[in-house]
Here is the input.
Amino acid sequence: MGENVPKILTTYSMDSENRLDELQFRWDWDDDGNWDTDYSNNHVIVHPYSSTGHYMVKDLNDETGTSSLEVIVLDPIDGVPVPPSSLKAISGSGTQINLTWNDNSDDEDGFRIERNIGGASEWSQVFEASSNSTNIQDDGLSLSTLYYYRVKVYNDIGPSHNSNLANTRTSAELPPSNMEAETVSSSEIDIAWTDNSDDEEGFNTFYTIRGTNFILLGAPYVILY
Here is the structure.
């Protein structure tokens, strides 16, 4: 937390035949023949090195093969905060994405969250978050759309490198809302909700008797005692 260890930002660009979200990468930070990460769609990764010097970094892409790049690790600028890591993007609905990350610095003034659509080259800052933040909610998005995110931390010395990239696609439908259940009799319950979509094919309704193990309404069931 907050240690100014040498760092290098390594990047890999998508090839001309495949979309960015279709590619998978893994990384060998010392080019010693042993892969240091599993496959993921992170084509931008921050990796700490224990000392300065020259390193060969190898990337293996499952579509286009391997490539190697020599990087020079320098002493970091004193006072610049350590970048966030483990950024994750989870679709909350057709118009909402929830972001979480690890805060690796203890001297930041805040975070800047950037977004692009579909893996485009242009990024836009969409939020600022206060110091020690580890999550934010992005609302008002388009249905069935792929969004990419990255986060950096900053203080009065300057901004950090970007975090890893995270992406997810919003769902194609808006979920129902304002669900209500009203007891009509000992054998009947009326259920009502707000329909927020205009192109759905139908609804599945689930219920539970004990608060767990939801069952599709109309399906056969067995109660175990």
Summary: The two ends are 51 Å apart (CA to CA). Residues 1-16 have pLDDT under 50 and may be disordered.
